Amino acid sequence: METLVEEAVAEALRDGGNEAIRLYVAACAERMAPLFVGLRAGAAGREADLDFYAESARDLWRADRPIANAAEGVRRLERFPELQPNEEGITDVADTYAFFAALCLRYALLAHGSGNADSAVSCGHAALTAMGMLDQSVAGTGFLAEEQRLQSLSLSGDTSNLWDASVMAGRERFRAVLGRLPR
Hints:
- The chain has seven helices and no strands.
- It is globular.
- About 70% of the residues lie in helices and about 0% in strands.
């Protein structure tokens, strides 16, 4: 499968070690978090899922050590409705972006727990795919380019503003998706 993740980013993940992988996936998941939490807020029976997503995104920032129960977190996430097979496919705007956010978190947890660079690349690919779709749906935006820039930043060594930049990017994405929802 061809990936949208830039080759230099993929190579840096392969060469960077566990902490670099963990920081990268934490930032990707942070940027995607509003698309899950915001789009699923208020959905009946999803409170525990929202809490789990938010707690997992927070825990991913502890890049100095693996999440102790990452494998259990992946199993729990795989039971989310967004990651269940659906013969009809996903056609709803909110469902589409919630799916990509859940998928991104799945790969982030896998990579964080294992230090596997391929899982980290898949995490980044999920975020880039969603942003490419958003760019196609909202004229004049640059979400894909911004995601690529932030993915590179997370591996640059100068990560002092990465969390703030990731939070801000996540908010902008959420606002753009909200603008696409039927009124």
